[in-house]
Amino acid sequence: MRIGLIAGPWIPVPPVAYGGIERVVDCLARGFLEAGHDVVLAAPSDSQCRAPRVPGMRTSEPADIGSTLSELSHVIRAYEGMQDVDIIHDHTLAGPLCRLRPPGVPVVTTIHGLLTPSTADVYRAAGANTSIVAISRDQASHAPDVHVTEVIHHGIELSAVPVGTGRGGYLCFVGRMCPDKGVLEAIQLAQKTGIPLKIAAKMRETDEIRYFQDVIKPLLGSNEEFVGEIGDAEKYELMGEAMAFLNPIQWAEPFGLVMIESLATGTPVVGTPIGSAPEIVEHGRTGYLAATDELADLVPAAAGLSRAACRASIEKRFSADRMVADHLRLFASLLEEKPDVGVPAAVDLGQNRPGELAALLRNPPQ
Q1: What is the pLDDT of residue 310?
Q2: 307 and 324 part of one domain
Q3: Strand, helix or coil at 122?
Q4: Domain of 68?
């Protein structure tokens, strides 16, 4: 196959620091290449991904994150460079509605955000001629009438993640500096337990800086250390030496990539059972999920969980190889349907695993 991949305009692929979507796109690009397929990537021109790229793309525009104008300009250039591919995998919001998409070429899009009423309108419209991938069953459940073709959980390249010792004597939080990610609750949890907390967080945008200055900074004391935004090597070391990873999120996060990163280092997760968390954390085996006010009592127990079991869980369920294979099976099933380029019937999300969902595509419900 010759696969066209479209990333967003705002962050390079792979990201230098923060950038979960871009990390996934880079992992997919490398995985498709290693599986023997041709790849052409539409991404900011300052990207370092080794996949061949669409010419004429602009440099990354982090200051414009979320800007409709910058995304539309990026999407136009991306689709103009996708005229000779067999299938397109689009990771933008606007792209699937672009009238410049090449005729007869199947388009797959992945939903990376929460399915709010507004975004559900977009994906509902896109579903008429685009196959839609959700990244968790919880994400898909927020708009049951959106035509989701398959649920494919994210994966991680395990060879790049060392297993830590967990003997650092601290808890850690990695995320974005905003109320939804639960940094406030992580601080309160650490203070209740009396265990030191190290906080690594993206803090670039005005709202993030204001939240830190007004809410978080006044709470920091001798028990807490704010280390700022860090790269992958520092992040994996921080996670790997922690007793437990705190993830008390306060929103229905579609997929918590930091949770599989922490588990890959061997560090169990303590967090709230919101969003995709129950699909990732095996309660009592790789971490504990409970209401925010119940988490303090679970931290010591989490620190005693098997680090080998945490790593094994990711090797079995969230590897990059599994993620790449699930996408390739989906692409192959769509190409078999040409020349009509139909969209498979939506599958019953139920308790199906991503691999099982891929199998269902071969015999979709009528």
Answers
A1: 98
A2: no
A3: helix
A4: 2-155+320-362
